[in-house]
Amino acid sequence: MENYDFDLFVIGAGSGGVRACRVAADLGARVAVAEERDFGGTCVNLGCVPKKLFSYAAHYADDWEDCRGFGWKPGTAEFDWSSLLANKNKEIARLNGIYRNILKSRKIRIFSSRARLTGAHEVEVGGERYRARYILLATGGWPWKTSFPGNELAITSNEIFHLPELPESIVIYGGGYIAAEFASILHGLGVAVTLVYRGEKLLRGFDEDIRTFITGEFSKRLRLELNREIESIARADNGQLRAILDSGEEIATGEVLCATGRKPMTCDLGLENTRIERQADGAIEVDEHFETAEPGIFAVGDVINRVTLTPVALAEGQIVARRLFGGQDENMDYEYIPSAVFCHPNIATVGRTESEVKLEGKDYDVYLAKVRQLKHTLSGRDELSLIKLIVERESQCVIGLHMAGPDAGELAQGFAVAMNCGATKADFDRTIGIHPTLAEEFVTMRNQRKVHAVGT
After folding, report:
1. Backbone angles phi, psi at 76, to 5 degrees
2. Which residues belong to the active site?
3. Residue 327 neighbours by CB distance under 10 Å
């Protein structure tokens, strides 16, 4: 055996990297981690956590109006952006400390600088080189902007968490979950929002009924410019921005948020010094055990661009550490992973979309309902919820669950457990609902649409 400085060297102290460090150290490994930014990665600093806090803040605008129908007579509502930022920053700093303490308490060596691969078992960090038996890449992803004149004037989802002042108006470019979430958040905080998207419906890749529904709900709240692209951005004499669309229309705005996606952060990692292979978008290629083409080097999380969710990165990092140092032979199951979009209303999904089931060539049944939440019978708000089940005909298993409505993520989590256990439509039907709730609609659905596989 060669002499190594560490058993495991992790590059990136986000969710997946920290989980791998913790598990490996608990199993007796000598572990080091390098992180050039803040501990906790995208989720803690520039994603899930601050975004959800902002979403909570935006919801109070609706609650303020809805309470009138229940007899409350609120006074003037005032929102202080600086207070929200300060409280958010305080919480993020607390979480950063928790992540760092997880590592320190296990005597994991921490390098607060960029690390690069210099060979199959070698890492350079802080001007020194270290040898490691295994290396794990968990560097995550980073926002990218569509290329057009003036795109340097646009901000990304990174900068929006640190704006010194909230703009009066904003143009959001994109139609994915990041664009949808920030459109809802900023609208709720009183910003005039225009959402520009090149497609006909928002949230490509989600179930088509959800896409149609949420696009309709968004059109009630803010300005949608669908089938449009931004051709350029310019600074006007008054300091405002001008977003010029491909239709020729110009939109004057305080800010432009480019929410056109994220790409794996694999630049300047020294990959050229190894046999590691990358996909066209920069994602690192790995096998079913998360090992790259260079034996002994592994990768997990957003940097491999499989399922870019924090809990998935956690699970992947844990699987790698347990396999390397605990002898556990476990594979990642991606089939029934629940996910949510914290737009208004929320979206949650578990399992397959209807388009995916069609491609599989299976007979299936669809149960779909649009529901007006009891709350809105008094609030008067023109807001509906949508719930959908997809049932495989032969097995009668529920293989797709989709929802747009309040607290959709909270509701879907429990159903994900049932679906991972192979729950059938009959299991749903014989479950007693909690009345009156929106969740009970999932166990009372009777309207059925039968779909036959192509060619049958």
Report:
1. -75, 130
2. 435
3. 8
